[in-house]
Specification:
The protein has 748 residues and is mostly beta strands. The chain has eight helices and 41 strands. The strands form ten sheets. Strands 1, 2, 5, 10, 11 and 12 form a six-stranded mixed beta sheet that branches. Strands 21, 22, 25, 29, 30 and 31 form a six-stranded mixed beta sheet that branches. A hairpin with a 5-residue loop joins strand 29 and strand 30 (621-628). The radius of gyration is 46 Å and the shape is flat. The N and C termini lie far apart (157 Å). 38% of the residues are buried. The model is unreliable at 1-37, 65-74 and 468-473 (pLDDT under 50).
Length: 748
């Protein structure tokens, strides 16, 4: 009831009361007013129901990610399963095996072969046949032999070669590489390109290097497709059959990698385990010896300086004339306690050999700079000087050769007192560079540790560089002879081939008794030599040329070549990519003359370094190149003038020198006139000619036909046109043997 209704009710009650309301009897007394009923409380308005929350729209199902395209080979019913490409000696039994679903017709499939060199795609093998079911597995394998007279004489041996599989739809179903990653490239090869061109081939992680001809690389593991399996090897080949330990079933999930165990040797944390590493290429990955501190002294010689024993005044440390190399001193080999006094007899041993370092993890370092720095300083991180590391020891060739690349389980020094120091050095280097110990190696050193004290290795100080580094001296090698080095070929693109050194000289020169010596600038040692032979024919201006092939001429830096005459005298000494001085031999008293030009692995195989200009002796010409080869003939822009008709003869003690060459052999022409300047010694060593070696001392007589003795300082000889002898000799009438083996060749 609302307020208006209540008021209306009250007024009605009052009005009724005022009118008597129907009275009774005769009593006229007024009736009392009735007590009004209490006003009821108003009924409260009902509480409105809460407004329900709006029903949310249903969450849409997420849009699935698009299914990625399968990696080549992962879903292909056929894949490359095994191959053999390299073994000791001549490669044999080369093959590639494919495996896959039984019943697959291989018609239309192709194997495509790629080289990392310029040749690129070098061969294609068209497949045929049907894959057979082996042992009711539903899978099988088929082998395809590679004849050695095909595909450029077999599968290429790397590094960086690849194999691809093209399916019948001309799609690259699979492509991988061995001995390094490789991008497939059509190149200039006979293959001309394939569907795999441009594919990035990842290194399979295993390789063959002088393996057995009965081994191969192959896939093992469990799965249904190529990438379910893992490459292993070299192991015994199973060409044409499913590989050992290869199972066709649901792939086993790859377990989480277990961190390598961390254990301790000589209180240093070391890594124990084995790692797979790529092909070992000593020259490409670990070149030595750099000059880390830039003072002209290579790292090899820094070690020689640091480990020289300064306790013997009769054997002080002696440098070459340039101050950049060590010639002699005193060194003790701690491996066998031998002592050496010539630098050329001392080798620098990597305590942890570079091959051992490579297979212990260094081969997996991404940075080529890390590998080079490690090879030169013993620390993969830059900033270490070679003489301050425990990686290097000055030792003799005997002990170093016996050690090779062995680890301590295979070789220990014969000097037992050095065992503990040696093992501590080994642990120090591997610890410092995060290299792994295999289990046998760890166990061996751990067992030996109990025999050693707990002393630490000493800190090795840097060499004293407080005085300015000596400036390399210019070459002082002889270079004025008429027989000289005229052309050189030592480095080129791809595999080095047709390496040679050419000699030029007057026509008629007999090269018997002459030789070429090759010197390694890294250790100043002789690494090769060749005895010369043959007689030079007149090919240009009275001069002839002879080229001598070498299996290997080192690629620098600062490697040297010496030309030695029959009296074992160094008559020319040159180098390329720097100067050097050999530790021993006939050229050891000289510093080489850098020819100023060089070759590299980008030089064309058709080019060489050679002398040009006009003259008659070595110093008249200049080196140029690389330019087009002229092997065995006169060089471009090279002319020879008439031979010098005056010879200067000098004497040192009881030896003759002609134009500065001891016991020189010379060539003269019939009918030509020559002057011999003998003023150096006058009548003290009468200089004469004969038809027999050593003249009157050899049973002959003095030859005088056409000879004029002007005075004690000059002799002239017009060689008779009718002289029948092809060889004449010079000698001293007072002292036997002054000419040595020197002779005079007579030519027309």
């Amino acid at each position: 009831m609302n307020i208006k209704q209540i008021i209306t009710s009250l007024l009605t009650v009052i009005f009724v009361a005022a009118c008597g309301g129907g009275g009774g009897g005769g009593d006229t007394s007024p009736e009392p007013y009735p007590t009004p009923a209490p006003t009821p409380a108003p009924t409260p308005a009902p509480t409105p129901a809460p407004t329900p929350a709006p029903t949310p729209a249903p969450t849409p199902e997420p849009t699935p990610e698009p299914t990625p395209e399968p990696t080549p080979g992962t879903q292909e019913p056929v894949w490359i399963n095994e191959f053999h490409y390299d073994n000791q000696g001549t490669d044999q039994n080369e093959f590639i095996e494919v495996a896959g679903v039984a019943g697959t017709n291989l018609q239309g499939y192709k194997l495509v072969l790629y080289s990392g060199g310029d040749s690129g795609h070098y061969g294609t093998i068209n497949l045929s046949g049907t894959i057979q079911d082996e042992a009711n597995t539903g899978y099988g394998a088929a082998k395809f032999d590679i004849p050695l007279n095909s595909i450029e004489t077999g599968l290429q041996n790397g590094p960086n070669d690849g194999i691809g599989l093209v399916n019948p739809d001309n799609e690259c179903a699979e492509f991988f590489s061995y001995e390094g990653d490789l991008t497939a490239n059509a190149g200039s090869g006979a293959g001309g390109g394939s569907a795999c061109d441009g594919q990035e081939g990842l290194d399979i992680g295993v390789f063959e290097q002088n393996s057995s001809e009965n081994d191969s690389l192959q896939r093992t593991g469990q799965g249904f497709y190529a990438n379910d399996f893992t490459w292993v090897g070299p192991v015994t080949a199973s060409g044409g059959f499913i590989n050992n330990e290869q199972v066709f079933d649901d792939p086993v999930p790859t377990p989480e990698p277990t961190p390598a165990p961390e254990t301790f040797l000589f209180n240093k944390a070391v890594l124990v385990g084995s790692v797979a590493t790529p092909f070992y290429d000593r020259d490409a990955d670990y070149p030595t010896w750099d000059d880390t501190d830039g003072d002209c002294i290579s790292n090899r010689h820094e070690v020689l300086i640091a480990q020289h024993i300064d306790d013997d005044t009769s054997n002080p440390l002696v440098y070459s004339s340039s101050g950049c190399t060590v010639i002699s001193g005193k060194w003790n080999d701690p491996f066998d306690n031998s002592t050496y006094y010539s630098a050329s007899q001392v080798q620098i041993d990597h305590v942890v050999a570079l091959y051992e370092s490579h297979i212990s993890g260094a081969g997996n370092w991404d940075s080529a700079e890390e590998k080079r720095t490690y090879a030169n300083t013993g620390n993969k991180n830059a900033g270490t000087l070679p003489e301050t590391t425990h990686q290097f020891l000055a030792v003799g060739g005997s002990s170093n050769g016996a050690k090779g690349s062995s680890d301590p389980t295979e070789w220990m020094p014969s000097n037992t007192e050095f065992h503990c120091t040696y093992l501590k050095k080994w642990v120090e280097i591997k610890h410092l560079n995060d290299l792994y110990f295999d289990q046998d190696e760890y166990d061996f050193i751990k067992n030996e540790e109990s025999n050693c004290d707990d002393s630490t290795l000493p800190v090795l100080p840097p060499n004293d560089d407080s005085t300015p580094a000596p400036t390399p001296a210019p070459g002082d090698g002889p270079e004025a002879g008429t027989v000289f080095i005229n052309e050189l070929n030592y480095d080129m693109v791809g595999v080095d081939a047709d390496e040679y050194i050419e000699i030029a000289g007057p026509a008629g020169t007999d090269l018997s008794g002459w030789k070429i010596e090759l010197y390694n600038g890294n250790n100043d040692e002789l690494y090769g030599s060749k005895n010369l032979s043959g007689v030079l024919e007149d090919e240009s201006g009275g001069y002839g040329f002879a080229a001598f092939d070498f299996a290997q001429i080192q690629n620098g830096e600062a490697d040297g070549i010496g030309l030695i005459d029959p009296s074992n005298t160094c008559v020319e000494f040159i180098s390329y990519e720097g100067t050097m001085s050999p530790g021993s031999g006939p050229c050891s008293e000289f510093t080489s003359t850098d020819i100023g030009v060089s070759q590299s692995n980008s030089t064309s195989a058709d080019e060489s370094l050679q002398k040009t200009g006009s003259g008659t002796e070595s110093s008249d010409f200049s080196w140029v190149g690389p330019v087009a080869k002229t092997k065995g003939s006169v060089n471009a822009d090279q002319t020879f003038e008439s031979a010098n008709t005056t010879y200067v003869v000098t004497a040192t003690q009881l030896d003759y020198f002609i134009d500065g060459v001891k016991h020189a052999s010379i060539t003269l022409k019939r009918g030509a006139t020559y002057t011999f300047d003998v003023s150096d010694f006058g009548n003290a060593h009468p200089f004469r000619f004969s038809t027999t070696p050593d003249g009157t001392f050899g049973g002959g007589t003095v030859f005088g036909d056409g000879v004029t003795y002007v005075d004690s300082g000059t002799i002239t000889w017009t060689v008779p046109e009718n002289l029948s002898a092809s060889t004449m000799y010079y000698f001293c009438t007072l002292h036997a043997g002054m000419a040595g083996s020197g002779a005079i060749s007579i030519i027309d």
